[in-house]
Every structure is written in C-alpha cells, then in structure tokens.
Amino acid sequence: MKVTKFKNEARDEIEIVFDVKEVEIDHAHTVWVDEFAVTVPVRIESQIHFVFGNDPFATLAEAFRSLYPNCKYEAYFVPSIKDGKGKEMFGETLFPEDGGAAIISISAELKIKDAIEIFAHKLAHVATPNEEHSKAWEDAFEKIFQEYIRLLEEKEKQ
Predict the structure, then answer these.
(1) Which residue in 13, 137, 146, 150 has its CB near the most CB atoms, within 10 A?
(2) pLDDT per residue over 111-141, tens digit each?
(3) In terms of DSSP bridges, do strands 38-41 and 73-78 run parallel, antiparallel, or are they unpaired?
(4) How large is the angle between the packed helices 56-67 and 135-157, nearest 10 degrees?
C-alpha cells in the first residue's frame, strides 16, 4: 500500500491510498486505482511509438514543450474519471506534493476533438499551477492552442 499526496488544479489537497495490483493487457502494464475507478497506464519509454503520422496529441505536446520546456507532466487516457462525489469528469490534473511531474488524466470516452481541447486545458494548468482559471491561465491556454495550430499548419505544408 502506498499513500501519495497530490494537489489538483484547484489546489485542493488529495491524499490517495494506492492499494493496487499490476496486470498485463496487450503487452502494457496497467495499474488499477480502484478508489477512483481510473486506470493509469505505466509508461515504458523504450516501447513508445506513434501509430499515426498526424497524431494531434503529439503535436499538442510538442507545442507545450516549445513554450514551457521546464514544465513536466505525464498524460494518460483513462476509461473514466470521477470526482469525490462520483460525478463524471472530462479530465483532471494532479500535482504531486513532492514537486514531481504533474499527472494529467483525460477521459477515453471523449471524441478526439474534445480530448484535444481538454488536453490543452490541462496543459495550461501545468503551465500555471497556482492560477486555476485566472487571466494567466487563460493566456497560457491561448498560447498553447495557437502554437498547436501553427504546428499543424506547418506540418500540412510539408
């Protein structure tokens, strides 16, 4: 059993007790976090490759990295995300109390176009961790999305 403390984008402190089992699905290890009905895939860097040449999530991550190279995060699609009251959520950003990389979870139930916007939304929280939905957060979101559009247009010309 492992206890980890996080803060979400609203800076609420969340203590998560992981009582997990590791299972293997399609050659990827998956950690099941039953308290939140969330599946968090474990990233194995040596096995990461992109299936689509025009992966919009990779392009969005590239846009974020170019604007905020020192902001670290890990992003995952999860089957479902629920708040403490059981209400479905589109995504969530958690900030480990130890200052480690933020953890972004995006609902796999979303349409791709919606998931891209939620991912950009969550990346803006990573860029502005203490700002919630302030002007600074709005500016970060806009910068990230504009850089994403610029990169898409640049890639179309190639």
Answers:
(1) 137
(2) 999 999 999 999 999 999 988 899 999 999 9
(3) unpaired
(4) 120
Q: Provide the whole-model pTM.
A: 0.71
Look up residue 23 and give its DSSP letter: E
Q: Are 108 and 130 in contact (CB under 8 A)?
A: no
Domains of the chain, by residue range, sit at 2-157
Nearby residues of 37 by Cβ (< 8 Å), 6 or more positions away: 79, 80, 82
CA-CA distance, 59 to 130, in Å (whole number)? 25
Amino acid at 11: R
List the Cα angle 112/140/158 in 5-degree steps.
55
What residues contact residue 38 under an 8 Å CB cut-off, 6+ apart?
A: 78, 79, 80, 81, 82, 105
Residue that is written with structure tokens 């999860």 in the block: 78
- Please enumerate in sequence order all residues whose Cβ is within 8 A of that of 135, keeping only pairs 6 or more positions apart, or say none: none
